[in-house]
Amino acid sequence: MTASKPFSSRSVDEITGGCRLRRMRKADWSRRLVQESRLSVDDLIWPIFIVDGKGRREEIAAMPGVFRMSLDFAVKEAERAAKLGIPAIATFPNVDMNLRDQTGSHILDADNIINKATRAIKQAVPEIGIITDVALDPFTSHGHDGILRDGVIVNDETVQQITAAAVLQAASGSDIIAPSDMMDGRIGAIRDALDANGFQDVAIMSYATKFASAFYGPYREAVGTAGLLKGDKKTYYIDHANSDEAVRETEQDLAEGADMIMVKPGLPYLDIIRRLKDEFRVPTFAYQVSGEYSMIKAASANGWIDGEKAMLESLLAFKRAGCDGILTYFAPQVAQMLKG
Ligand code: PBG
């Protein structure tokens, strides 16, 4: 066979029927013109970590560029986020070890750091939305999201506990309650309790499909559950092999009163996001979790990938998959870039 002999007797125009998709890719202006998805600052929710005390701002080793902050710093960061146009923040506590117990009872303290943070941020930065996570893991001595009895995470008792916690969070000024525990029946119970206490306008963002995942590792360092957790969370989070089950969970959470749904982790689960958006057409969010953040940071620190480009590509992928917004530790950095 000689190189000069064509391998196909047909011309490219015969093969493609004259449809050359590269035509619209030829210049920046035409690529911009046909771009289907866009990332805007309005898509961003920024998760932040809060600790007690004053003047504390400690970098999380497994999450370079992410800090645990005491309230004074957290309020300043919420102000910065609002100035950047970020619509909402989501708060997570690192609770003092001596306040953690078997049942996570400190979540029921109206003056725990999450409720204090909500009041302080609401007062200083009323224009930013506040999302509070309601799950027991930062408050339990064993790092599980529920009450542990005889080796079992007990469902119904946990639901009562987080429902009471949700009402306290709403009373502190939380705009959106985000249950991340995956107990059965918690959305309906929380909705009932919010309504009964006059919080009809407080929304619920359900972690509708939260998968048992290895990508939560750095978060567990951030909230101090890494060293406590025994076993795994497979008896309450969804098996990451399952997609139909994610649809059933979501269907149930929406029927119980969820206003918006979330898929977590994010990037390995774009198929789930697309499926849920097509099926339910409700406000849909993804949580680009700690492990996803840290992978991009680590590869970029080693010079293996361009960190900024990978960050933007990963976030735009969520939009393409059907997300209305993304919880991401990159939020302030991205907002700054989109502004510039
Ligand atoms: C648990 C909770 C988790 C995250 C937020 N809340 C997972 C876990 O520790 O099992 C993970 C967030 C992240 O990885 O960024 N209620």
Keyword list:
340 residues; alpha/beta; TIM Barrel; eight-stranded parallel β-barrel; two-stranded antiparallel sheet; 39% helix; globular; binds ligand PBG; magnesium; porphyrin biosynthesis; Delta-aminolevulinic acid dehydratase; heme biosynthesis
Structural summary, described in words:
The chain is α/β, with parallel strands linked by helices. Helices cover 39% and strands 18% of the residues. The chain has helices at 12-16, 28-34, 71-84, 113-124, 155-171, 186-196, 217-223, 244-256, 270-280, 290-301, 307-321, 331-339; strands at 44-50, 57-60, 63-69, 88-93, 129-134, 147-149, 152-154, 176-179, 203-210, 260-264, 284-288, 325-328. The strands form 2 sheets. The chain has an 8-stranded parallel barrel with strand order 1-4-5-8-9-10-11-12, surrounded by 9 helices. The chain has a two-stranded antiparallel sheet with strand order 6-7. Strand 10 (260-264), helix 9 and strand 11 (284-288) form a beta-alpha-beta unit. Helix 3 packs across helix 4 (113-124). It binds ligand PBG.
- How much strand content do the residues show? 15-25%
Order of helix and strand elements from N to C terminus: HHEEEHEHEEEHEHEHHEHEHHEH
Largest sheet: 8 strands, parallel, barrel
The number of helical segments is: 12
Total number of distinct structural domains: 1
Structural class, by secondary structure, is alpha/beta
List the ions, cofactors and other small molecules found in this model.
ligand PBG
How many strand units? 12
The CATH first-level class comes to Alpha Beta
Q: Using only CA atoms, what is the Rg? A: 22 Å
Q: How are the strands of the biggest sheet laid out side by side?
A: 1-4-5-8-9-10-11-12
Distance from first to last alpha carbon: 55 Å
* Approximate helicity band: 25-40%
Q: Poorly predicted ranges (pLDDT <50, ≥5 residues)?
A: none
Averaged pLDDT: 97
* Outline: globular
**Topology-level CATH name:** TIM Barrel
The CATH homologous superfamily is called Aldolase class I
CATH architecture: Alpha-Beta Barrel
Active site: 210, 264
Pathway: Porphyrin-containing compound metabolism; protoporphyrin-IX biosynthesis; coproporphyrinogen-III from 5-aminolevulinate: step 1/4
Protein name: Delta-aminolevulinic acid dehydratase
Family: Belongs to the ALAD family.
